[in-house]
Amino acid sequence: MAYSEKVLDHFANPRNVGSLDRGDQRVGTGMVGAPECGDVMKLQIQVNEETGVIEDAKFKTFGCGSAIASSSLATEWVKGKTVDEALEIRNVDIVNELSLPPVKIHCSVLAEDAIKAAIEDYRKKRSH
Amino acid sequence: MDAPDYFQFFGLEARLSIDLPDLENRFYRLSRQLHPDRHAQAAPSERERSLEASAILNDAYRTLRDPVARAEYLLKQQGFEQSKQAPAELLDEVFDLNLALEELRGGDVSVRSRLEAARERFLALLQETDAGLEGLFGAYDRSPAPAALGEIRAALNRRKYISNLVQQVESELNP
Asked: Which is the catalytic residue, given A67, A73, A94, A107?
């Protein structure tokens, strides 16, 4: 199966690989996985507590090229958005942007889930 | 010939806890009855039937003597399919494991001890899950209810996931 150029680009030059300090109050961590393919995806956001804007995002994904590209794109997209705006990102947007074939749609679902999980984690921290 | 119910094939009730020596006795008894040599003089159609029945007997025995395979069989019969959800509480472990595997492949041999520790942890989790399953099996046999099967389904999903992790670590430690 051929990967699209955009997938290959994100795969060869993933954006925002790394990790943020989990203990930081401003950091939300989303960890998601898919047992059937063994993929694990960690996506973290750092939020400006006054403005609610996501100022930084990092990811690390163990999985196929499409999973890596989906999470790389997700970190690019959430940066500069408010937390509420980031929640609007849908997996179909990722599918369209990366031209993912049907068998790889679950990778984009994983990326959407990771964003949501990171935001949920951030909000949970703030409510304490 | 459609595969018959494995429990019925052995003349057993559908139970998750099974008396293994009893199952073995039933297996040998049926094996002798169905053995092709005993049907050597029979009509070809009957010989074929005994051959098919022998094959089913072997499948049934292999399935029922193993507690996990037995439970999977019963769950499938009752419509409880394997889940595609990863157990959330294990994801951190899986992530760390992948990180260590990546470092080991990158040539960092110092992570070996981390992998060995991970293997011990997963093996302990496996034992814990097995002990839990035994209790769940007993509970289901005492009062067979769909809710109990749901719990068993969840425990088996977890077990499958953990045993995959153990395999992954072992193939990396002993290539």
From this structure: A107
State the complex-level ipTM. 0.82
Distance of alpha carbon A54 from alpha carbon A33, whole angstroms: 23
Q: Is B140 exposed, middle or buried (0-12, 13-18, 19+ CB in 10 A)?
A: buried
Q: What CATH number labels B6-65? A: 1.10.287.110
Which chain A residues are within 8 Å of B104, Cβ to Cβ? Answer: none
**In CATH, what is the architecture of A5-123?**
Alpha-Beta Complex (3.90)
Query: pLDDT 10s per residue in chain B (175 long)?
Result: 466 899 999 999 999 999 999 999 999 999 998 887 777 787 888 888 888 889 999 999 999 999 999 999 999 999 988 766 667 778 888 888 888 888 888 888 888 888 888 889 889 999 999 999 999 999 999 998 888 999 999 889 888 878 888 888 888 888 7
CB contacts < 8 A, A to B, total 29
